[in-house]
Amino acid sequence: MTVVKNICCIGAGYVGGPTCAVLAYKCPDIKVTIVDLSEARIAAWNSSHLPIYEPGLDEVVFECRGKNLFFSTDVDAAIQEADLIFVSVNTPTKKTGMGAGMAADLAYVESATRRIAQVAQSSKIVVEKSTVPCRTAQSMRTILDANSTPEIHFDILSNPEFLAEGTAIKDLLNPDRVLIGALQTESGIEAQNALVDVYTHWVPKDRVITTNLWSSELSKLAANAMLAQRISSINALSAICEATGADVDEVAFACGKDTRLGSKFLKASVGFGGSCFQKDILNLVYLSRQLNLPEVADYWQQVVTMNEYQKSRFVRHIISTLFNTITNKKIAVLGFAFKKDTGDTRESAAITLIKDFMQENARVAVYDPKVEAEQIYMDLAEPDVEKKVTICASAYEAAEGADAVVIVTEWDEFRDDQLDYTKIYAGMNKPAFLFDGRLLVDAAKLRKIGFKVSVIGKNELA
Ligand code: NAD
């Protein structure tokens, strides 16, 4: 039976870093080396200021780093030493569609696989950790097989990651499930068992699911598509709530009490963001079109369309409430990360909203507790952005002289029991508008202060 003693992870990003840090933390008998092409990223992982923010991550990394956890740019050496290699590189959506929708760009997966094939000097278990279209393992296999010899054999596993940013360490320490897919051959199953053994260092055996390779690859896309679909469903209902006087929180609560539905992921908002949901659905859409299943493709595409609609609906509502023009008005945007407890801004709704505000000639002030100014300007990528958008050190500074405050990220510090909204109100232009895109504040309480409040999914007149 194969026993894994040395692991390499290619890609030190939001997934590779935390995942393999926890693995090292829970498996002190295994040496774990996380490698990346980016020298800056590796230097940050080796410093006291880690490149990503996740609650609990510092503790895990600082406990193991230098003992059995290493960060390096020497990709080849780490590949050569390892028995098992996670491929945890980025799989962004391609910029061009080529007629069938937007495919995942697998260039990084291919290049990491080629590297493994070229430098391996002994047999390896290669594990897809990145989220990939169904049957990507087939392409990886072709590349690896072309380089295998009687002495060097490669097995491929699929082990998609289900962590959510913001709760990554908690999710990794206590996962709902770990999914490991393998080819159903003798050697595939032996490799699968070896990875099961690694995870059962800390994950109860009944939470480790083993499947065939293709089920595992598709399950990751399916899980993200269904999570995003729930958000788009409640967001679609939020529009009906605003028009009718139904309250989206009450509707979500009433629906969620049905045990067949469950209450999680039924929070209306300005729309989902993050690097995964949209990308993975577009992936599914593309796959469906390639498989000549256009109705299936259209079905999933609608989840993304609804998400775009929710963002533009929110912006239109803000503009019409502010007397149909925001030219030269100051809008304070609270939150830039795509959700709370992360500094990640990829596909954040804030980017779309702020670009729309700039288009309408508003002056924008942004405050986010974890996102640096440099990142915000990079994401907005507009000419003269620094003249149009000010980055502030607090919510109070952002709201000073503002006509409207817009809550975009649900950071706890923006709650009405944490932020002093009386002070915010005092500094604003009157009438002072507040738009809550996250159902975070008690509208009645803020109306008493004097704010004119609009909350997604709630009708002010109800
Ligand atoms: P990321 O962009 O943060 O990290 C990827 C890293 O891989 C980068 O640092 C990049 O420099 C490195 N890299 C790319 N090619 C390389 C190569 N050939 N050799 C060495 N390093 C290389 O991406 P991420 O958010 O960690 O996502 C990785 C994968 O995990 C994606 O497929 C994503 O869909 C999936 N995923 C992400 C999340 C999430 O919450 N971010 C959750 C589950 C799954």
UniProtKB/TrEMBL annotation:
Residues involved in substrate binding: 161-165, 220-224, 260, 267-273, 338-339, 438
Tagged with keyword NAD: yes
Coiled-coil parts of chain: none
Superkingdom per UniProt: Eukaryota
Pathway: Nucleotide-sugar biosynthesis; UDP-alpha-D-glucuronate biosynthesis; UDP-alpha-D-glucuronate from UDP-alpha-D-glucose: step 1/1
InterPro entries referenced in this protein's UniProt entry, alphabetically: 6-PGluconate_DH-like_C_sf, NAD(P)-bd_dom_sf, UDP-Glc/GDP-Man, UDP-Glc/GDP-Man_DH_C, UDP-Glc/GDP-Man_DH_C_sf, UDP-Glc/GDP-Man_DH_dimer, UDP-Glc/GDP-Man_DH_N, UDPglc_DH_euk
Binding site for NAD(+): 11-16, 36, 41, 89-93, 130-131, 165, 276-279, 346
A single GO cellular-component term on record: nucleus
EC number per UniProt: 1.1.1.22
Reaction it catalyzes: UDP-alpha-D-glucose + 2 NAD(+) + H2O = UDP-alpha-D-glucuronate + 2 NADH + 3 H(+)
Keywords, in A-Z order: NAD, Oxidoreductase
SMART domains for the chain: UDPG_MGDP_dh_C
Gene3D superfamilies: Cytochrome c1, transmembrane anchor, C-terminal (1.20.5.100), NAD(P)-binding Rossmann-like Domain (3.40.50.720)
Keyword NAD in record: yes
Domain UDP-glucose/GDP-mannose dehydrogenase C-terminal per the UniProt entry, residue ranges: 332-443
GO BP annotation list: glycosaminoglycan biosynthetic process; UDP-glucuronate biosynthetic process
First-tier enzyme category under EC: oxidoreductase
Gene Ontology terms for molecular function: NAD binding; UDP-glucose 6-dehydrogenase activity
Active site: 276 (nucleophile)
Family membership: Belongs to the UDP-glucose/GDP-mannose dehydrogenase family.
UniProt-recorded name of the protein: UDP-glucose 6-dehydrogenase
Species assigned in the record: Absidia glauca
Encoding gene per record: ABSGL_14706.1 scaffold 14966
